[in-house]
């Protein structure tokens, strides 16, 4: 292993607080989404859009589910939702 010298670091100039405040104040404000007339129309009814569900899997099957989710780079829950949605869209069920 080679030993490297510490890089020369230049001292940072003092921060100009007024310039920082002006920069922050000039930042673009996000546009607000339009408010739906009916809460259910926006998917925000009295109940939340998603409900927690308890599922029981055989350990071998769960390992396959986890491997498939990992290959896609998503969570187990997201993979199950994706797969169920795809099956229902294909007319299964």
List its salient traits.
flat, 40% helix, mainly alpha, 93 residues
Note the run of SSEs as H and E.
HHH
Radius of gyration: 26 Å
Measured distance between first and last alpha carbons? 61 Å
Q: Could you report the average pLDDT, rounded to the nearest whole number?
A: 80
Total strands: 0
- Runs in which pLDDT lies below 50 for 5 or more consecutive residues are none
- Overall spatial form: flat
Q: Main beta sheet: strand number and arrangement?
A: none
Percent helix, as a range, is 25-40%
Task: Give an overview in words.
- This protein has 93 residues and is mainly α.
- It has helices at 17-25, 59-72, 76-89.
- The longest helix is centred in the C-terminal third of the chain and has 14 residues, at 59-72.
- The mean pLDDT is 80.
